[in-house]
Amino acid sequence: MDYFNDPELNGKYLGTITKDFATVSDTLLEASAQIRKRDISRYPIFVFAKENVSLGGLLINADEQQLEWHVFASYLELFVQQGIVSAEGVEGFQATYKDADEFCCLFVLDKEFTNFVFVPYPED
Fold this sequence. Notes:
Layout: H1 11-37, E1 44-49, E2 57-60, H2 62-65, E3 70-75, H3 76-81, H4 90-96, E4 103-109, E5 114-120
Parallel strand pairs: 1-4
Antiparallel strand pairs: 1-3, 2-3, 4-5
């Protein structure tokens, strides 16, 4: 699997993801810090999905926040356990993973598009 930002991420996804991300970015940054601080993982991943998925725990319910995407908190090791990232792909993922204090690792999961996207946190 390619862990780089996908050039195929069209405007439809980029717009709705960016809008929702801007709304929840502070929550995601705090969750990322807690996942790393508690030594759960050095590689937090936030799943953006339109439907309920079993990839981590529900962090933000889209219906309660008037968002288009539900957000689930997860991490690399769980993605390996569930077969999304192969054991052979771990090194490549880790090498591609960006500074978690500056970028949020999203796994966008929808019928037409499924991939990792790294989005910079907004500057205060």
